[in-house]
Design brief:
95 residues; mainly alpha
Length: 95
């Protein structure tokens, strides 16, 4: 006989021999444990989502700052060469 089969048989026997109050207490405790585990999993999933959103926001902000720094670098280079910045001051394309 396998150990799993023996374990299942004893578990089933214990269930049958327990009183109604013991079964109710056992089921309540089992539900409480499952609820706690579900809450932990939910917390971890939410934490992962928040981390992912934060990283995405950080990337967007980094790209934006990188573009701004690039524009400033080009503007400084043009100033050093004596070019007037007025026509290129606006980063938006002109028609």
């Amino acid at each position: 006989m396998k150990d799993d089969t023996l374990y299942d048989a004893f578990s089933h026997w214990e269930e049958l021999s327990s009183t109604k109050e013991q079964r109710v207490a056992y089921e309540e405790r089992a539900k409480q444990i499952m609820d706690e585990e579900a809450a932990k999993r939910e917390f971890e999933l939410r934490k992962q989502d928040a981390r992912r959103e934060g990283l995405e926001e950080g990337r967007k902000e980094g790209k934006k700052e990188g573009k701004q720094e690039s524009l400033e670098t080009v503007a400084r280079s043009l100033l050093e060469e004596g070019l007037v910045l007025r026509p290129i001051a606006s980063p938006s394309p002109r028609p």
